[in-house]
Amino acid sequence: MRDREPARKATPPVIVVGAGHSGVAVAAGLRARGWEGGILLLDAQKETPYERPPLSKELLKDGAPDESAVLRKEKFYEDKRIDRLSGITAESIDRKGSAVLLSDGSRHAYHRLVIATGSRARPLTVPGAGLAGVQSLRTRDDALELKRLLVRGARVAIIGAGYVGLEVAAAAASKGCEVTVLEFQDRVMSRVTSAPVSRHFEQLHERHGVQFIFGAAITAIDGVGRAERVVTADGTVVQADVVLAGIGVLPNQELAADAGLECRDGILVDGDGRTSDPAIYATGDVTRFTSPIDGASQRLECIQNAQAQADRVAAHITGQQAAVPEIPWFWTVQHGVRLQTAGVRHPDDDVIVRGEPAGGRFSVVYLRNGRLAAVDTIAGLTDFRPARKLIALGARIDPRLAADPSVSLADAISTRPNPTDAVPTAARI
Ligand SMILES: Cc1cc2nc3c(=O)[nH]c(=O)nc-3n(C[C@H](O)[C@H](O)[C@H](O)COP(=O)(O)OP(=O)(O)OC[C@H]3O[C@@H](n4cnc5c(N)ncnc54)[C@H](O)[C@@H]3O)c2cc1C
Q1: 43 lines ligand 1 (CB under 6 A)
Q2: C-alpha distances in angstroms, 123 versus 4, 120, 129, 172, 265?
Q3: In this predicted model, what pLDDT tens digit does every residue of 24-73 receive, in sequence order?
Q4: Whose CA is nearest to atom 35 of ligand 1?
Q5: Residue 319 burial class via C-beta count within 10 angstroms: exposed 0-12, middle 13-18, buried 19 and up
Q6: Chain-centre distance for alpha carbon 308
Q7: Which helix or strand (DSSP H or E) is residue 127 part of?
Q8: Atom of ligand 1 nearest to the CA of 286
Q9: What is the pTM of this model?
Q10: DSSP assigned state of 164
Q11: Rounded CA Rg of the chain
């Protein structure tokens, strides 16, 4: 009698490294798109994967629960047969053997591998950066420690006037802390927005008692055992019980780089999230890709990108059509005022203010070669939706009409033809 056929070896799972916004979205997207095989989600963190935006906003408020919102309830992972290994890191990739090696010594074969390792807070490297009371903010543990330190009367020095630094400044001021923000540039959020928006938010913070020192190059943090003061290159000294370094992030690309995948300040991926190895994808903060809108090489650190890229990866793995690339968007809330941005502004874009900043509610539109490239809306969303559509269409805007807030953005489209102007890729999507 012939031996029974050996059971066909099951296809190995899709392994997703990192259970942040993007990793969880890939796992969910695979199931939503009908992937029947195994899914293994690996996460360095121990807790149920959670949202990061509340860490610098709601979670810091007095009386707010310490658990920030989870991305998905535990039951979701069970119901969708998504296996999770938490508190474990992927240490290396054996590309020839299609396997990942984990920190507990185990080895797991993959059908496809997705790297969603996100980014980490850029470390402060000056002397004294390791003193107690010097914090960065990336994880829930960081946020809870910060919350513990932000008590009435505490002197808080924030290094970096980016989104995270300013959100923490607002939270600290609302708790009665004495807040000083030290920023190397000459205005807040200079990397992401224009001078009128910076000025508006500076004034907003100042009205809430936050002080700014611009042009500040930090040289040291002094203190015995714990932070007591921040020192800058020009000799300025800021007394501080708590120091928050909000100086940007670095992509967690080492796993990919060590495996020989192409990286350049981010893992290089194409529009489907594919790396230089066809069996390996990457998604979220850790990636660098070419903007389908303007061809710029970019790394986007926002929820919208983490989710949109994840969906494209899930679509590609399951052989399906992905959604049309979305215009990137981002938000921040400071002292209860919401700044919402669509598109990615370039420093040399033309800047048009719509409305009166003194009134507290206005927009700023950014034109590149006459086309709408980005918009900031402050405390109002009227321009946000139309702007996203118009940016995707590469619409030419009449600057005179755009400056009049009583004219809708859609009605500010310029009808003047410009035959020398190339049609941007987005218009053809
Ligand atoms: C305080 C704060 C506030 C923010 N506010 C906003 C906001 O208002 N709006 C907005 O759009 N965006 C905001 N962001 C940015 C947003 O959170 C990120 O863009 C988003 O989390 C990126 O998702 P991701 O999955 O790429 O990375 P992450 O969410 O960082 O997840 C990556 C995960 O991978 C894990 N990991 C890393 N290496 C390994 C490894 N080797 N093995 C296993 N696991 C690993 C990490 O532990 C982490 O859990 C904020 C971020 C922070 C920190």
Answers
A1: yes
A2: 59, 8, 8, 21, 16
A3: 999 999 999 999 999 999 999 999 999 999 999 999 988 888 777 999 99
A4: 18
A5: exposed
A6: 12
A7: none
A8: 26
A9: 0.93
A10: H
A11: 24
